[in-house]
Amino acid sequence: MSRPKRSLGQNFLHDTNIARKIVASMHLRNDDHVVEIGPGKGALTVPLLEELSHLTAIELDDELAARMRAAFGEKLTLIHGDVLDTDLHAVAKRAGGTVRVTGNIPYTITSPILFWIIDARESVRDCTLMMQREVAQRLTAKPRTKAYGILSVFAQYYAAPELLFSVPPKSFAPVPEVTSSVVHLDFQSPYHPAALSDRTFRAVVRGTFGKRRKTLRNGLRGLDIPQEALKNISLSLDRRPEELAVADFVLLADELTRHHVTISFPTAT
Fold it and tell me: Mean pLDDT over residues 2-17, rounded?
């Protein structure tokens, strides 16, 4: 019997009603190519395979991976390894099209997983994920709120996020100390029009929020942008980054791009 491993952030979903509610929210077709992150003991896998002809799952835990192979056989393609080391583009290519991603993702690596999906967005149709409620609220947060930040801007720029419903702690074993929420991100409905330079857009968002309590002017100074270039910006640089909507960040990035400003800033997610 596999015991939850604290090192892997394992909290197993055992509420079958919640599992079926998640699957129902996905409106699956039999031939959809779905990737499940961290299937664990298969609470979500079972109802998924009632709707699908085949499923790909990514599981790091050795014992659970072996159990999944034994339980689901040829209906399941199991990737035994770390989700963040998995090439989602390659998975989608093998599937012959875009994939749909789902799973009860570990609280400890929620943000890295979200950025992993965002970076593979060209191969992802959508994702339906269960995560800590506070993180879910950040995805849909509005400007001028405490929850609004880098994750909010990126989620709302690259996709259309929607908070679907919350899940009580008692639905898991062991029982976590937090409430969870299920979120849907539709990558077929990104913000439009897109920024002229994705690299510049990312750098501006990360750079300014890196100095969240300071003004845009101070945040942009940290990106080594010449002061002369800042004179051509139409936005008030006395505002703080949490005051800006996605459209404002796109405008700011585009004005820097049009003035041929080169930003030397790490943009890896």
Answer: 67
**Is 243 in the same domain as 119?**
no
Res. 269: pLDDT tops 80: no
**What letters, b where the CB count within 10 A reaches 16 and e where it falls short, cover 84-99?**
eebebeebbeebeebb
Number of domains in the chain: 2
Q: What is the pLDDT of residue 228?
A: 82
Answer yes or no: is pLDDT of 9 > 80: no
Whole-prediction pTM value?
Answer: 0.91
User: Do 107 and 131 sit in the same domain of this protein?
Assistant: yes
Tokens of 130: 């269960």
In angstroms, rounded to a whole number, what is the distance separating the alpha carbons of residues 75 and 55?
A: 6
C-alpha span between 249 and 10 (Å, rounded):
36
Cα distance between residue 263 and residue 226, in whole Å: 10
Tokens coding 100 = 């749909």
For the chain, how are helix, strand and coil distributed in percent, rounded to 5?
A: 45, 20, 40
What is the spatial distance between Cα 65 and Cα 77, in angstroms, rounded to a whole number? 11
Q: What is the pLDDT of residues 92-120, one digit of tens each?
A: 999 999 999 999 998 889 999 999 999 99
